[in-house]
Design goal:
Distance between the termini: 52 Å
Number of strands: 31
CATH class of one domain: Mainly Beta
Shape: globular
Helix content: under 10%
Largest sheet: 4 strands, antiparallel
Strand order of the largest sheet: 1-31-30-29
Radius of gyration: 24 Å
CATH topology of one domain: Thrombin, subunit H
């Protein structure tokens, strides 16, 4: 007759299993997720401010209104769009059709400074710099914190695209050249398109620290060029002929780390790793917005029939994908996205769990 195991033996066995799990278990890595935080109707222009602080506020442009909202969904400012609006994490510029007088408003809608001059406003990616593009698209100037001209530069051809990163600005031109300018407006590099029947720069991007520059140029064939910063200039490190022939501005962006380059192709977003491996993520429609954040990259496509929102973690982990109606907008700062749909704002939080 077998004796039953004593209770002391069972206790030792249980404690042994627990000790093994503690000492030799393999912890699972954190997983990035997208969570809806709140959804609010956008108030009418001129409505009283709901929030009391502008800390971490997000500025937005949705249809015929613009303004800002705090992380809890309380609106700080809502204005009717005059003609166009430039939006950043630091504030927004709501400008008229003739674009000869600007007012920079902070995240609470209060005027910070005004500027008189012909051109259209454009913020840097991080919102720390404000530029003016000439109305004939042949010149660029940067404005300082007082609204004064810090530097200005004219180009021999029309500007077709512009990107910022760190202390640099990349400017693509209709003649097929790309110029990289320093924080003082001095040219540090110039690249020209070779081997294409049509020489036009259709898209450009700069890494957040300006350590890498990239552009897509030409038609028949269309080529991607990536350059690395070497001392005071840049040198080409990668070149690839693309299987496409888009004849419009092409959305491009480096990941926040600067290691991955993302651009649009018909029916896909392409992620190019530093190793040279290219990964395609299905994505339909012309890309209207491409936002690189610390935890993920977000994209919005659109047409008269509608579009979709895609949030993914490079190189290829899709976190969220959803169809949206025509006219949807997308804005964000680190960790949060604002999706505007039919007069409502939906706040999405990108985090880990």
């Amino acid at each position: 007759m077998k004796r039953k195991p004593s209770s002391r033996y069972r206790l030792f066995a249980f404690l042994g299993v627990c000790l093994y799990l503690v000492l030799f278990s393999r912890p699972l890595g954190k997983e990035a997720v997208v969570r809806p935080v709140w959804s609010r109707d956008v108030p009418a222009p001129g409505a009283s401010a709901e929030g009391t602080t502008g800390a971490d506020a997000i500025c937005f442009h949705a249809g015929d209104v613009c303004g800002s909202v705090d992380p809890n969904g309380r609106f700080l400012a809502v204005d009717a769009v005059l003609y166009g609006v430039a939006v950043s994490s630091a504030g927004y510029v709501n400008y008229s059709r003739d674009a000869n007088h600007w007012v920079l408003q902070d995240v609470r809608g209060n005027p910070r400074w005004s500027y008189a001059g012909i051109g259209y406003p454009l913020f840097s990616t991080d919102g720390g710099s404000l530029f003016s593009v000439k109305t004939d698209l042949t010149g660029l100037r940067e404005l300082d914190k007082n609204g004064e001209i810090a530097w200005e530069r004219d180009f021999p051809s029309f500007i077709t695209c512009l990107a910022t990163g760190g202390d640099a600005v990349a400017v693509g031109l209709l003649d097929g050249s790309l110029e990289v300018l320093s924080g003082r407006g001095e040219r540090t590099a110039r690249f020209t398109t070779e081997g294409s029947r049509i020489r036009v720069v259709y898209g450009c991007a700069l890494a957040p620290d300006a350590g890498r520059a990239a552009y897509i140029a030409g038609a028949d064939p269309q080529t991607l060029v990536v350059a690395e910063r070497r001392g005071a200039g840049y040198s080409v490190s990668y070149r690839m002929v693309l299987p496409m022939d888009l004849r419009r501005e092409i959305a491009m962006e480096f990941s926040r780390s600067g290691r991955d380059l993302i651009w649009e192709e018909p029916g896909a977003l392409v992620v190019l790793e530093q190793s040279g491996r290219a990964i395609r993520i299905p994505f339909h429609g012309a890309v209207k917005v491409l936002i690189s954040q610390k935890a993920a990259v977000a994209a919005l496509s659109g047409s008269q029939e509608g579009g979709e929102v895609l949030v993914f973690r490079p190189p290829s982990t899709v976190l969220a994908r959803e169809a949206v109606p025509a006219g949807a907008t997308l804005f964000g700062n680190d960790g949060r996205l604002l999706l505007g749909i039919d007069g409502r704002l939906l706040c999405l939080e990108i985090g880990e769990m």
